[in-house]
Design goal:
Residues 548-623 are annotated as: C. It is found in: Cytoplasm. It comes from Acidiferrobacter thiooxydans. ATP binds at residues 36, 40, 82, 87, 95, 102-103, 124-129, 176, 331. It is a single chain. With 623 residues, this protein is an alpha+beta fold. It folds into four domains: 7-224, Heat Shock Protein 90; 230-363, Ribosomal Protein S5, domain 2; 407-490, Rossmann fold; 499-622, Four Helix Bundle (Hemerythrin (Met), subunit A). Helices cover 38% and strands 18% of the residues. It has 20 helices and 22 strands. The protein has a nine-stranded mixed sheet, with helices on one face. It has a five-stranded mixed sheet with strand order 10-11-14-12-13, with helices on both faces. Bound molecules: adenosine-5'-triphosphate (ATP). Adenosine-5'-triphosphate is lined by residues 36, 40-41, 44, 82, 84-87, 95-96, 101-104, 128-129, 176, 250.
Length: 623
């Protein structure tokens, strides 16, 4: 088929669903269609500007970049035209016929099937180009990619039902014009004043002039058309910041917080950065997109400039406009640039300061932030040694004293008990498993608070955060515990001096049975209820971390735990007088397996455990 032929193509199923929603939508604020189309036009111009940095001929002699909005009352059309990058025929089919955009994918995730609810979502998401069909019963898109011949124009048209047509046409102008054939009953939009008001409301921050015919027939720039970040802070309203954020972040909700700052000195730059309210679905994707756009002296250079902020702040969205970088800066150059390092560390500090301020002054908002992005921020403790202390202050935990995710290390330190100088934590798969850990028994008795660490990253976090404000972080499941003089005067299990040799003999006898499963067996100071628990060596990885590494397929150095036994527990006491070697071995193995289970671990051979347990139960019955 020659490319000039007119093709009729079907929309992807999801697009059809979306269009159906638009057309039958009960959504009343239809005016967002204009915001969406202007936002696309502005992105298209940014792309052209960037590509033209390398190849000026793309301007085709016209570098007066702008967006035109025009109403034709008689023809009942609204046209939104840009002289941006434009699209080839293939690009039109790919971009307009299918759903790739992140915003729209998220929209679909939220659909409920309840018409009224779903209609409201449209307003929140905007859902891009397709929102044109809320006010139009037919949409024509004319476009030509910058740098292609005028015979390579493309005309796309659809009535928003199952299919659309594309054909190649002659088009002298570069860029894209979207013509909306306004639906019966939506006549309010065929009015210049109405459109101007909508533009001022939603698109004032767009850097390009948005031009409409003025009363006298000349043309008038409707928006401020100044880069929002370049304007003085005191002149910018919250609403303007919010709309700008929605545009750069392709988000539908207002952000949680922002910083707008102009830095002078070694590197001059302006940063306008936002913390979103909600985590995107691809926060943990390997090839996720980053959030910050790089501008150089108001000229858009690139999206997703990952060099501008460290990985653990990848949720931040916004703009950094650098004064001193060359316009032709590429990703490769950015990677090696010292100037960028300066900007990056400055911007990082600003974001961390913003979070600290939020935590202090708006704890409710900070809680929202933490719930959405806390896990990512934790990566910073591992990644960013220079800011480790700053980040440590921002961490929040669940503890044995509080079930919410709201305890800071400073809170913890402030309520440490008499004699306590360490920060204690336990790591486990889940908060429930952590709370039931036998290691906590003595802590509960003594009234000592313990942090419950249940995120995967936590194991790495504690290996990098060895102390907080002079207080060492200490696992409750590692090494020998010395809690003498700490907290309430409750001690762990005690062994009378005269009985020591006997306990020593028991420990050794058990250790023999367990062989190289354990490093040693010893009498516990931490258990008060459970019969036994496993303890890792002070410098070992820790039992939970080993399990995680194994699950991830990594080879871990085999470290052997210590089995601690509770001399106050009847099962253990009973073992001392067990004369049958077989039964002694079975009980010992049982205690060992129980200790693994109690920490949320899994047994190598579950069937063997069950078999042994049943054997012992039957033995008890016979006795
Ligand atoms: N005026 C235009 N000029 C050039 N390309 C355009 C234009 N309008 C739309 N496109 C292309 O079509 C794609 C789809 O647009 P659409 O508005 O549906 O979503 P989006 O803007 O990419 O994403 P989001 O939903 O996150 O806003 C755009 O990504 C762009 O590639």
């Amino acid at each position: 088929m020659t490319t000039t032929e007119k093709q009729t193509l079907g929309f992807q199923t999801e697009v059809r669903q979306l269009l159906d929603l638009m057309i039958h939508s009960l959504y009343s604020d239809k005016d967002i269609f204009l915001r969406e189309l202007i936002s696309n036009a502005s992105d298209a111009v940014d792309k052209l500007r960037f590509e033209a940095l390398r190849d000026e001929s793309l301007y085709e002699g016209d570098s007066d970049l702008k967006i035109r909005v025009q109403v034709d009352k008689a023809a009942r059309t609204i046209t939104i035209a840009d002289n941006g990058i434009g699209m080839t025929r293939d690009e039109v089919i790919e971009n307009i016929g299918t759903i790739a955009s992140s915003g729209t994918r998220r929209f679909f995730e939220r659909l409920t099937g309840d018409e009224a609810k779903d209609a409201r979502l449209i307003g929140q998401f905007g859902v891009g180009f397709y929102s044109a069909f809320m006010v139009a019963d037919r949409v024509t898109l004319l476009t030509r990619r910058a740098g292609t011949a005028s015979a390579q124009g493309v005309r796309w048209e659809s009535a928003g039902t199952g299919d659309y047509t594309v054909e190649t046409v002659e088009r002298p102008e570069r860029g894209t014009a979207v013509v909306l054939h306004v639906r019966e009953g939506e006549d309010e939009f065929l009015d210049d004043h109405r459109l101007k008001a909508i533009i001022r409301r939603y698109s004032d921050h767009i850097t390009l002039p948005i031009v409409m015919p003025a009363a006298d027939g000349a043309s008038e720039t409707v928006n401020k058309a100044a880069a929002l970040w370049a304007r003085p802070r005191q002149d910018i309203t919250e609403l303007e910041y919010d709309e700008f954020y929605k545009h750069v972040a392709h988000d539908f909700e207002a952000p949680l917080a922002h910083i707008h700052s102009r830095v002078e000195g070694k590197q001059e730059y302006t940063a306008l950065l936002f913390v979103p309210r909600r985590a995107p679905f691809d926060l943990f994707d390997r090839d996720r997109r980053y959030g910050v756009k790089l501008y150089v002296r108001r000229v858009f250079i690139m999206d997703d400039a990952e060099q501008l902020l460290p990985n653990y702040l990848r949720f931040v969205r916004g703009v950094i406009d650098a004064a001193d970088l060359p316009l032709n800066v590429s990703r490769e150059i950015l990677q090696k640039s010292r100037d960028i390092d300066t900007i990056r560390s400055g911007a990082t500090r600003k974001v961390l300061d913003l979070l600290a301020e939020l935590a202090e002054k708006e704890p409710e908002k900070y809680r929202t932030f933490w719930a959405e992005f806390g896990v990512v921020l934790k990566e910073g403790v591992v990644e960013d040694a220079g800011n480790r202390e700053r980040i440590a202050k921002l961490l929040r935990f669940q503890t044995t004293a509080e079930s919410g995710d709201g305890v800071s290390l400073a809170d913890y330190v402030a309520r440490m008990v008499e004699g306590q100088d360490k920060i204690y934590y336990v790591t486990a798969e889940s908060a429930a498993a952590a709370r039931h850990s036998p290691h906590l028994e003595i802590f509960r008795r003594k009234g000592i608070e313990v942090l419950l660490l249940t995120d995967r990253i936590d194991e790495w976090l504690v290996t990098h955060l060895s102390e907080f404000e002079g207080h060492a972080l200490r696992s409750v499941a590692k090494g020998d515990l010395d809690l003498k003089g700490v907290g309430r005067d409750e001690d762990g299990p005690k062994v009378a001096e005269t009985e020591e040799p006997e306990w020593k003999a028991l420990s050794e006898r058990m250790a023999k049975v367990l062989g190289d499963k354990v490093k040693e067996v010893r009498v516990s100071h931490r258990l008060t209820e459970s019969p036994a628990c496993l303890v890792a060596g002070e410098h070992d990885l820790g039992i939970h971390l080993e399990r995680l590494l194994k699950a991830a397929g990594q080879n871990t150095p085999a470290s052997r735990p210590v089995l601690e036994i509770n001399p106050g527990h009847p099962l253990v006491v009973r073992l001392r007088s067990e004369s049958s070697e077989q039964r002694f071995a079975d009980w010992t193995m049982l205690l060992f397996d129980q200790a693994i289970l109690a920490e949320g671990g899994t047994l190598e051979d579950g069937a063997d455990f069950v078999h042994r347990l049943n054997g012992l139960l039957l033995g008890l019955q016979g006795a």
